[in-house]
Design a protein that fits this description.
Layout (H helix, E strand, L loop, with lengths): L1 H15 L6 E9 L5 E9 L2 E6 L4 E6 L4 E6 L5 E6 L10 H11 L4 E8 L6 E11 L2 E12 L2 E10 H16 L2 E4 L8
Antiparallel strand pairs: 1-2, 2-3, 3-11, 4-5, 5-6, 6-10, 7-8, 8-9, 9-10
Length: 190
């Protein structure tokens, strides 16, 4: 009986504590100072909140179980995938390791360039890749890596040459709005 009582007390205390691995992503919006509003995706992960604007002309889809967010171009030919991982919390691996990982993630591709990219949180690194999956077909991919306190967020933007050139500025502007802030525990005073 004492064991059962102790177990119930432990479960009650554990239920009140915030789960540091709880993950929930959802659509939101931000009111602009100039007027109007823009769509965002908000990700609450444990004690952190990640937010970024949706790229213009894209719709967002969330898979909380897989910890992914997908943006599809309304025209249908381009996709941006964001995957939240627990790899390397706090810092990015070396640029050479990230290039090797990007190439391994996209079989048949080769590196065109890599550069740091700014966000409203801290800089990340992207690797531009090219591949020719079929005759007269070329695919370009920008595989970005951003460190967070909980792990690395990967951004993968893939399109044919024409769509890549047309949409990459909007993609980079969207990533530039990425923020990380502490999430107040439930029941905390505001």
């Amino acid at each position: 009986m004492r064991f059962l009582l102790a177990l119930l007390m432990f479960l009650a205390v554990a239920a009140g504590a915030q789960d540091t691995n709880q993950f929930h992503a959802y659509a939101g919006y931000v009111n602009l100072i100039e007027g109007g509003r823009v769509s965002t995706v908000v990700i609450d992960w444990g004690d952190q909140r990640f937010t970024m604007r949706c790229p213009i002309g894209f719709a967002s889809h969330v898979d909380n179980y897989a910890r992914t967010v997908k943006f599809d171009a309304k025209a249908g030919a381009v996709a941006i995938n964001i995957t939240i991982t627990t790899n390397s919390p706090g810092d990015l691996p070396s640029a050479e390791d990230l290039k090797a990982y990007a190439v391994a993630s996209h079989p048949g591709s080769w590196v065109l360039q890599s550069y740091p990219f700014p966000t409203s949180y801290k800089p990340g690194l992207y690797v531009d890749l090219a591949q020719a999956p079929a005759a007269r077909v070329s695919l370009r991919t920008r595989h970005g890596f951003l460190p967070t306190p909980k792990g690395i967020i990967e951004f993968v933007f893939s399109a044919n040459d024409a769509d890549f050139d047309k949409l990459r500025v909007g993609f980079m502007q969207s990533i530039g709005t990425f923020t990380v802030e502490p999430l107040k525990p439930r029941g905390a005073a505001h």
